[in-house]
Design goal:
Structural class: alpha+beta
Order of helices and strands: HHHEEEEHEEEEEEEEEHH
Strand content: 25-35%
Largest sheet: 11 strands, mixed
Oligomer: single chain
């Protein structure tokens, strides 16, 4: 049984843990920080607005401003769930496409599920509300259909972020270090020509310590499926053609809240190994060779013995 199989097989226990956590996080008044707080489309419209960037190639959901002179601030929300799929750094050589024009498509992503708990399903409904808000803003254009996915019959949500941005659309945004986390083996950077890694492309990785109740930065390869995590996410829409757009739920950070599923899974494996019946060691017969060889070898071994039986004392006199 895998970690995820253990998660699904013991869903009621982990549903209770997640539901308790999400209930403690929900807000009834602004400023809103939890995704599940935006289940009402009217609430999303009242407290957010959409701005265009990169000459209209990107639309971003931001906090509603009192006036247009106020600098825009991206709306970053949080959502909790169990990690069921992940594609995270560092990059390996086999992930680099041979066609350098496809480098821009490289991305990291995570998928989480709420195992059917209501607060998580509310969060999924909130994403749909944001999608419809973008759709209304793009009236007269085509926004590609988006809907939640499913993982083992449960609603799941996927968030991602590209590693690279086309340099011509960087808008003088500060560059970020690509070598420390994303490309420590230097398999991507030698192929870059017209692509850059910006602050916009950065994802942060954290883990919560229970004692004391603080967070610390971690490497992404320490994040494994089955962990209960909190994501910090944002929403953008990218222009693909003249009138074609795609909705992009964006990953900004991931924080491990606990590893209770892994702890329970490891304990169950140890218990199984310590209690199962082990058959006693028995001698094993071994036969090696071929039938024809065995007969030939046996006859050759018997020949000297047959000769000895035929010898007399007189045969040995010189």
């Amino acid at each position: 049984m895998s970690v995820l199989a253990h998660l699904y097989a013991n869903a009621p226990k982990y549903q209770a843990i997640l539901q308790e956590w999400m209930h403690e996080c929900v807000e009834s008044e602004p400023p809103f920080g939890q995704l599940q707080s935006f289940t009402d489309p009217a609430r999303a419209v009242d407290h957010t607005e959409i701005v265009e960037q990169q000459a209209g190639r990107t639309l971003v959901l931001i906090h509603r401003r009192p006036d247009t002179t106020t600098p825009p601030e991206e709306l970053v929300l949080r959502v909790q769930g169990f990690l069921v799929d992940a594609s995270l750094p560092p990059l390996r050589r086999d992930q680099i496409p041979t066609n350098t024009h496809r480098l821009i498509d490289l991305k990291q992503s995570v998928t989480i599920t709420g195992l059917g708990v209501q607060p998580f399903d509310d969060a999924a409904a909130a994403v749909l509300a944001v999608y419809h808000q973008f759709s209304a803003h793009l009236k007269g254009h085509h926004l590609r259909t988006w809907q939640p996915e499913r993982a083992n019959t449960y609603i799941s949500l996927t968030f991602g972020n590209r590693y690279l941005t086309a340099a011509k659309f960087s808008d003088n945004e500060p560059h970020a270090d690509l070598s420390e986390v994303v490309d420590p083996f230097n398999v991507l950077q030698p192929h870059l020509s017209s692509q850059v890694h910006l602050q916009e492309n950065v994802v942060e990785y954290w883990e919560r310590n229970t004692q004391p109740n603080k967070t610390r930065r971690i490497k992404p390869d320490a994040i494994m499926c089955g962990a209960m995590v909190e994501l910090q996410i944002a929403f953008t829409v990218a222009k693909l053609g003249r009138h074609d757009y795609i909705f992009l739920p964006k990953l900004r950070a991931i924080c491990i809240l606990n590893r209770v599923v892994h702890a329970d899974y490891n304990a169950s494996i140890i218990k199984h190994l310590s209690t199962r019946n082990v058959s006693p060691l028995r001698k094993v017969k071994r036969k090696v060779g071929y039938d024809s060889d065995d007969k030939e070898n046996a006859s050759m071994m018997d020949l000297p013995q047959q000769r000895l039986k035929c010898l007399t004392l007189g045969d040995g006199v010189v």
